[in-house]
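Hi U.,

Before I forget, here's the chain from the pilot set. I'm dumping it here mostly so it's searchable later in email.
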Amino acid sequence: MKRICVFAGSRPGGHPGYMEAATRLGEILAEEELELVYGGAGVGLMGRIADTVLERGGKVTGVIPSRLFDREVAHTQVTELIEVKDLHERKAKMAELSDAFIALPGGYGTLEEIFEVVSWGHLRIHQKPIGLLNVHGFYNPLVHMVAKIAQAGFIPERSRQLLIPEEDPRTLVSRLRETASSP
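Structure:
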């Protein structure tokens, strides 16, 4: 595992723990020499994790759609900034560049991104591990909903296990490594 795609909010959120988690995850990625692939913004949780990885000497690739370049305040100090046509191309490019995925807290965009890659995993389009950094229980309702979907028979148990929730970023990265290396 060399590159991790992190989906995250372009806002800081309403709890200081969200920004702290983005900082901690960025420190761990840099320390473990894992490159960050993310949505390319320099604001919110997205900006915090990118800044942290860069400050620690790590590599950061941002992928941002042309029409969001100014609105999301593109992070122009990243190692590589890839400008794409639209959100669909952004997700495809981030997935192509990455060996695993982590979702920090975020809004509609973060949820949409995580559901797209988990759907691709469900359909076996990829076999990359997908983690949820469950900061202060942020993703508890989602984990419960996925369990309910499986219990109702809409997805098999194997697909329920595609999402790996963890509260601790170091534990989450370790679990993603283990999952990526297992057959």
